[in-house]
Amino acid sequence: MTVDIQMRLVEGVAVLYPGPYLNQLRGESIERCCQELLSSGVRRMVINFAETELINSIGISILLGVIEAVNEARGMLVLSNLGQSNRELFEMLGLLAHVRIASSEEAALLTLNGERQGAAI
Amino acid sequence: MSLTLRKMLHNFNALAELGNEINSTHDFDEVVRASLHMLLGTLAIPRGAIARYSRAPRQLKIVAAKGLQKAIGQKISVAPEDVAPLVRHAEPLQLQAEQNGLSAFVGRNLEVFKRLRAHTSVPMVARGELVGMILLSEKFTREAYSEDDIALINTIARHIAIAFYNHRLMVSLRRKAEENQRLYREMHATYRDTVKAFGAAIDLKDAYTSGHSERVGRYSEAIAREMGVSGRELDHITVAGYLHDIGKITVDRSIINNPRPLTDREFKELNKHAATGYEILSHIRHPWDEIAFMAKCHHEKVDGTGYPQGLSGEAIPLGARVVTLADSFDAMMTDRPYRARLPLERALADLYRNTGTQFCASVVVAFCRLLLKEITGATRERVFLTAIGIKFDRPAVVATLSEMILELEP
Fold first, then answer.
1. What's the number of CA atoms in the CB half-sphere (13 Å) around residue B21?
2. Which chain A residues have a beta carbon less than 8 Å from that of B44?
3. pLDDT single digits (tens) B147-172
4. How is residue B250 annotated by DSSP?
5. CA distance B139 to chain A (A)
6. ipTM of the prediction
7. Which residues of chain B, if any, have pLDDT below 70?
8. Which of B265, B376, B371, B240 is nearest to B317 (CA)?
9. What's this model's pTM, rounded to 2 decimal places?
10. What element of type H or E holds B127?
11. Cβ proximity of B68 and B150 under 8 Å
């Protein structure tokens, strides 16, 4: 069984929306979506957690795989719109220091576009 | 909320999720994979694997992995002397460090552990038995595992170990049940073959009735099944069909094969075979008493004029009423010392004429339905057609059978 993950491309950056609950089902869909994006050459991604109320342990496990896959492909991933409980979860797991976080999707896109421009210079 | 309390709640939540998964009805491989994901996600570990232990061959085989390519199916060798220390030290072991009695195990498998990027291994033990191993990479943050982490890993490993143990028990029970079913099927086949052999032995006594008992057995089974009989009852009726004439083994061969009309004395002697069959079969313990009674009643008539007891209607067991029809139909369709076989049309007319006196109407209807299905090709079964051949007026027989069903069906 799979679920469709909402995704849009903004100037070459893929923005993914995990939905209300990041569990095994949605996590695997995000993982598959990211793999397809990486295979098709999209290296910059944002995961927008604005609608995500809960991330369970399987969701975290799959998310770690996504972060590693993007890093291994020399891509960039920004997590945006983390609510308080999800932010605390990331903090508790010590992940905040190891992933890029942005307060909003716009800020995440700015971060990624800024880094691309920086790389171009 | 303090960080300590948050971590405690996080760990409780992970254990609750794990409990739900382990107790779910999901496929076991999926349960193992989800359990691994839960462990890794709870402690932010990017890579890990779960291996299942087998005694023959003695090895650990990876059955679930995350973040590792081509890990599934990889094997970790276990020497006999490794098992006891693995069971004793069922807690996280850093694979780089010198281990208590396990340096040989680690050294022998170092290449596999490197390939699996395993930093820590956790032997899984349930009821004192090694059931598997969890392999973990470093944490995503590269921090060392804390004491709390190790306690949680131990707890989760124990839960997964018990799930493995229970699954192994279930698999073993399922295999035993399958083996028992196979043995039962074999015994049943042997039993049926023995019954058929008895039937053939009975028929050898009569030069004219070769194959009669086997045909009556097959006809009885088919008619009873058409009437909705199944399971043990169907089995009993079939066996009664095969053995209905077993009493004939005590009747003098000269009487059975006599081409002339029998004298009264000879008739009396021949007619004893139903009761004699009961005597023979009733000495075999339950459930054969039902079979014995069916065989005894195969010359009873529904109007009460048959023998040996003159039973009527439903006092005659259904199985016996079925065997009576099968027996009579086969007798009509085969050559006898005193007459040639009857044409099918004539046999059907005899059946119809004697329905309600000799034969039970519902049995006749079931027989007619079955024969009609065979003749019209509505079934691929060839129970009756094989014996009666193709020399009959097909449209007339189809019409007769249809009329008989219409007329006799309650």
1. 26
2. 60, 64, 93-95
3. 889 989 999 999 999 999 999 999 99
4. G
5. 10
6. 0.84
7. 1, 96-100, 207, 286-287
8. B240
9. 0.66
10. none
11. no
